[in-house]
Amino acid sequence: MNDLCADIGYKSIKHVGEELCGDHVDIVEKDDGSTVVVLADGLGSGVRASILSTLTSKIISTMMAADLSIEECVSTIAETLPVSGNHGVAYSTFTIIQLVRNHTAELIQYDNPYVILIRDGVVTDYPMTGIDIEGKKIYRSTIRLQEGDVFVAMSDGCPHASADRAYNNDWKREDIAEYMAEMSLTGYTAKVLCTMLVDECDKLYGYHPLDDATACVVRIRQRVPMNILFGPPADRDDCNKMLNLFFGKEGKHIICGGTTATIASKYLRKPIKAKPVIDTTSDVPPISEIDGVDLVTEGVITMSRVVEYAKNYLRGNESYEEWNYGHDGASRICQLLFEEATDINFFVGRAINPAHQNPNLPINFNIKMSIVDDLTASLREMGKRVKVSYF
User: Fold this and answer.
1) What is the pLDDT of residues 179-193, one digit of tens each?
2) Which domains are delineated in the chain?
């Protein structure tokens, strides 16, 4: 392994009038630290296409995670999935990006638009070798990874997106590549990059897509650790132990909760200072500052908002501008966790706050633990490495 990691994001829009998207993306982590990403595009649209693409991506990702060959994967798909009477084939098109221990990328492509590689902001060609499997032409490539590499995979609903049934010949794969090369220089996350691409396709469709459209972006970057302290320990005697571990970790440090901040202030022998409120319209409690700490926020209310933003980020990402440009505590935490961090260490205190035991208040210990569970689950789904330590 090395200090590189993969930031992976994807987004889909479905054919107008359909309840399900006919494209599917599956991501599997292998035991050796490698990652398998599969984007499958089922034949047609709607329920049948959704089933075909889901089964295709699940079968391929599971088998490749078990180190089986692409020949075995394709044969299994052909034997497992029903044959289309109209098309005479038994599986969807697919794109596979296998990141081998963050050293190399192995691309395996069947009948989807070719993966776009952007290196140093420039669209870069890569070698492809064609092989025949079950009568289908499969293209394979092996690429040595570099920091900053961006891979863009897509279904065929992205190129030629148009508001009518005629192809839009002004929006080809080459045009998408040029558009994404410019966007890659902004430093946006993979999720934001694929959201921008799919939203642009949706716009070209007149917001009534005539095909399912999916984009999956893989961005290679350096690992960035982040540490969050949330709540005091159940045993007061563990305060120094928890704080020693917390401040001993590499990376930025975030403290959530008034009591927790007070304990950290005494430990660091630095006062807590109130920060001026920049956004007077925000209902998130104000933030504070302590020398030696990167961010100090209120606890449960702020973290509950972070969980809301995290769940939205994994769906349509509609709240992106709200938290990306926000200055309140929840927005700042989102900026640090969603966009900057790759490895996140949670230090969670199990102390019960007496003020939260009032039955008339909506806050209790179980809600605090639920916040931690929901947030860590969302962060892991974003591809973050998360470790939680309880005190």
Assistant:
1) 999 999 988 999 999
2) 4-222 (3.60.40.10), 225-390 (no CATH)
Region class of 101: left (phi > 0), else alpha (psi between -120 and 50), else beta: left
Tell me how far apart the alpha carbons of residues 375 and 366 are, in angstroms, rounded to a whole number. 14
Q: Terminal CA-to-CA distance of the chain, rounded, Å?
A: 31
Q: Are strands 129-133 and 136-144 parallel, antiparallel or unpaired?
A: antiparallel
**Residue 321 DSSP symbol:** H
User: Is 367 a residue whose pLDDT tops 80?
Assistant: yes
Cα–Cα–Cα angle for 84, 106, 121, nearest 5°? 110
Q: What are phi and psi of 98, to 5 degrees?
A: -105, 120
Q: How many residues does the chain have?
A: 391
Question: Could you tell me the strand order of the sheet in which 136-144 lies?
Answer: 23-29, 35-41, 93-100, 104-110, 136-144, 129-133
Q: Could you tell me whether strands 252-256 and 295-297 are parallel, antiparallel, or unpaired per DSSP bridges?
A: parallel
- pLDDT tens, position by position, 239-264: 999 999 999 999 999 999 999 999 99
